[in-house]
Amino acid sequence: MDAHLLYTHQTTQQPRQPSMSLAGSHSAFFYGTLMDPDVLHRVCHGPRLPNSTTSNTLTTRPALLPAHRRRRVRHADYPAVTPNPDSTVCGTLVVGLTDGDMWRLDLFEGGEYSRRPVKVRPIISGDMDNPWAEADLELGPEVEAETYIWCAPEMDLEDREWDFAEFVALKKVRWVGAGGETGGEYNEVDEAVKAAKADDPTRGRGLNGSISKALGE
């Protein structure tokens, strides 16, 4: 894990759905593509809203999710997490998400995942190049959050770890474009259902995918 890829990131936001709460009371643990600030921003804010125009503050910090394992999804750019008493997942804890953000995140994750409550340990300091060596980390107290647990068939998962640095270096461009731009007009939410069946390593979540288009405004 590259130390520079896990950090405290400040950004701002406003909900996409007017009827949803402005409270920003949700905390979520992300362990895959959503650890990248550009991908998270694209999902929560849509393709046209820069961070500087939004109102509430998101705080992101590295964290550990115990008793779970991260694995690669076959023929996809993103990973899955499943319960496993002998493993720990390193990811990011994001605090301040709104009801509107969670609605968009649920759509983005799709039917392969189920949002569930978990307890994570924020990483205060330590060897971020080896975050699994918990004895060398200073951890904060347990924090309640939600994360997306894989609920599709386990046969769709590979028996190996997913690499965030590899995603950022080689695959991120398929999700947010070069330089973080997003593009195209966005289609109706229903089209996201069709995208999950496409032969696409982002499975509709990429730059011009149907799930991404459904998230647009």
From TrEMBL:
What are the UniProt keywords, alphabetically?
Answer: Transferase
Stored InterPro entries = AIG2-like (IPR045038), AIG2-like_dom (IPR009288), GGCT-like (IPR013024), GGCT-like_sf (IPR036568)
**Where does the record place Polar residues bias?**
8-21
Keyword Transferase assigned: yes
Q: Name one GO molecular function term.
A: transferase activity
SUPFAM superfamilies in UniProt: Gamma-glutamyl cyclotransferase-like
Q: Where is this region: Disordered?
A: 1-21, 197-217
Asked whether the UniProt record includes Metal-binding among its keywords, one would answer no
| Top-rank taxon | Eukaryota
Q: Domain Gamma-glutamylcyclotransferase AIG2-like, which positions? A: 29-162
Family of this protein: Belongs to the gamma-glutamylcyclotransferase family.
- This protein's name: Putative gamma-glutamylcyclotransferase
